[in-house]
Specification:
This protein has 416 residues and is α/β, with parallel strands linked by helices. The protein is built from 14 helices and 14 strands.
Length: 416
């Protein structure tokens, strides 16, 4: 069995696991204006008449290159996504009771989900001005490779870009790598930083951008995607490898699955059939029946079409359920962290399992029409306490813009 042994995160309104759990339980939105230091991004967005509200994190000045002996010149040209993953990988190790010395030279795999490459877009416009450190400091592949290099990790090392499903797809590969004994530890990360208005412009022009910068997931008033930033890191390992004196974990990973929607009504449209098949196959591979699933952390971007098709897929999977399967999405509080959204959902669910309760879903008082009283899936109106002595299964979904879907099934983890 694969377990989540350590975690760390920084999402809008919440730096660290305790703050993230408080935000989730408080059911409060973290959407706001970008930090004043993002002057270039703000000017660019205003020139394009694009709203700048969204979910942002104050990450500037948090990274100390001296801790990893990175030269100042090199650190000054590094993508902040590299820095965030380095910071939170170290914190996830500490959360798991490990030191850097414990993993130096080890067969630790690094699996990162990332899609934004904003600093490179901004820096590489004038090729004549590009310095060697601009290359090693940027590029998606180098987010994972930087972590493997700086911590001297010898397992697989890869950055995966499947758009908004990237970090959950990265987790899928990490779980497989551990099960096949390619690595002994796996650091799984998702990261997203907004330095350019490029995707805001795309969302606006495609008619799926939220004017107020938030995501009204599964709501009657859903009006589009609000972009946001964030980073989350998990330390996964095999249950039998956990130290006898520290046999603690947040949750166990029963199964993960990945598929693609093939051809649909258009390139960027989701597929109800593919989502349905993915959840059914993932649960079947774990030997778990749909009626045993307590909760699904959905993708829930807040677009009318995307939410509608996801609800239809969930209703097919959980048809006939009574009581219903509970549904929610962290995007309704922190916005769409894109490549980091899968990890944001996994950390939320791992904390729910760990603390044995399901917090309320935002917009539960104004659900989408399909989520009527007869629906086998429902938003959570009030906190649901879970019996800590029973095993509880919860799913996490992430769907990519280009059609790559991912789902993970987590459960409570007990020893003995």
């Amino acid at each position: 069995m694969i377990v989540v042994a350590g975690m760390s995160c920084h999402f809008p309104g919440a730096e660290g696991l305790d703050a993230y759990w408080r935000l989730i339980n408080g059911n409060r939105s973290a959407i706001g204006d970008p930090p004043a230091c993002r002057r270039g991004f703000i000017r660019q967005a205003e020139a394009l008449q694009i709203p700048v509200r969204g979910g942002y994190i104050e990450h500037e000045g948090r990274f100390d290159p001296r801790l990893l002996h990175i030269p100042e010149r090199e650190a000054g040209r590094m993508d902040p996504q590299q820095k965030l993953v380095l910071i939170h990988a170290c914190r996830a190790l500490e959360d798991a009771g490990l030191t850097l010395e414990d993993i130096v030279g080890s067969r630790t795999g690094v699996f990162v989900g990332a899609m934004a490459n904003d600093l490179a877009y901004l820096k590489w416009g004038d090729v004549a001005q590009v310095q060697p450190e601009d290359i090693t400091g940027n590029g998606l592949c180098l987010i994972a490779n930087r972590l493997s290099y700086e911590l001297d990790l010898h397992g697989p090392s890869m950055t995966i870009d499947t758009a908004c499903s990237s970090s959950l797809v990265a987790m899928h590969h990490a779980v497989r790598s551990l099960r096949e004994f390619e690595c002994d530890f796996a650091l799984v990360a998702g990261v997203n930083v907004i330095l350019s208005a490029l995707l805001q412009k795309f969302y606006r022009d495609a008619g799926v951008g939220a004017p107020d910068g938030g995501c009204r997931s599964y709501s009657l008033d859903a009006n589009g995607i609000g972009r946001s930033e964030g980073v989350g890191v998990l330390l996964l390992r095999r249950e039998q490898d956990l130290p006898v004196l520290r046999r603690r974990s947040y949750a166990a990973v029963n199964a993960t699955g990945v598929n693609h929607g093939g051809q649909s009504i258009r390139f960027t449209a989701p597929s109800v059939q593919a989502q349905t098949e993915l959840l059914q196959q993932t649960y079947a591979s774990a030997g778990v029946q749909p009626h045993e699933i307590a909760y699904v952390e959905g993708h829930g971007t807040g677009t009318r079409q995307g939410d509608l098709m996801e609800i239809r897929a969930l209703q097919q999977v959980f048809s006939g359920r009574d009581p219903p399967c509970w549904l929610g999405s962290i995007k309704s509080l922190i916005g769409h962290t894109e490549a980091a959204s899968g990890i944001a959902g996994v950390i939320k669910v791992a904390l729910m399992i760990h603390y044995a309760h399901i917090p309320p879903s935002a917009y539960a008082d104004s659900p989408a029409p399909l989520l009527d009283a007869c629906s086998p899936v429902q938003l959570v109106k009030v906190t649901k306490s879970l019996n800590p002595r029973r095993r509880h299964y919860m799913g996490v979904s992430a769907f990519g813009l280009g059609g790559t879907n991912a789902h993970a099934l987590l459960t409570s983890h007990r020893f003995g």
